[in-house]
Amino acid sequence: MKRALILSGGWEGHHPSEIDGIFKQILLGEGYDVDICKTLHSIHTNYPLKDYQLIIPNWTMGQIPYDSLCALLEAVQEGAGVAGIHGGMGDAFRNETEYQYMVGGQFVAHPGGQEVDYTVLIQDKEHVITKDINDFEIQSELYYMQIDPAIQILASTPVGSIQMPVAWTKTYGRGSVFYCSVGHKPEDLTNKDCYNLIKNGFLWAASKE
Q: Which end of the chain is more exposed for a tag (fewer CB within 10 A), N or C?
């Protein structure tokens, strides 16, 4: 049985419990056994991280104990996939630079506030994650992020004179990393192309390809 672990909590403004439910339904539909962990203390004691094909941080801000952070990073370095969206992954554990390096980016601002209209442009149309995904419009919170120049950009959006990455992949040790900055509210995932982008990203991260 394929297994996935969702780390759920942090700032309630990103509706972690509702997002958990969407993620769980995606993964159950793909044949995964899904566990949801709602504490950051001794994660590796209660959940053997190396037994999971996919780990999904869904924990905006917060602080993670050092032993749990080390266990998470080690599990990904040794081959577990890690994937997530918006602040649940891209604005978690602000003090932990090694975590940010693993993710490939960190939230710094949301131009225009929490509800702006923007277009997500698929940049890499040949990747297995994006090959069937169309450009799409979304009304949500736009993330301006610090990024690792080593990421493989899958999708972006215009912000002033630059293209801000919206979705990307990278590797961390032997682990595959997928991130999408869309997802401020559960309704964002009702957009078909956004939903499929996230689903494909999860499955890719877990596949070790």
A: N
Contacts of 93 (CB under 8 A, 6+ apart): 59, 61, 62, 63, 64, 69, 99, 100
CA–CA distance, 130 with 196 (Å, rounded to integer): 9
pTM score: 0.97
CATH number of the domain encompassing residue 113:
3.40.50.880
Give pLDDT tens digits for 117-157.
999 999 999 999 999 999 999 999 999 999 999 999 999 99
Tens of pLDDT, residue by residue over 170-207, are 999 999 999 999 999 999 999 999 999 999 999 999 99
Under 8 Å between Cβ of 43 and 37: yes
What is the tally of structural domains in the chain? Answer: 1
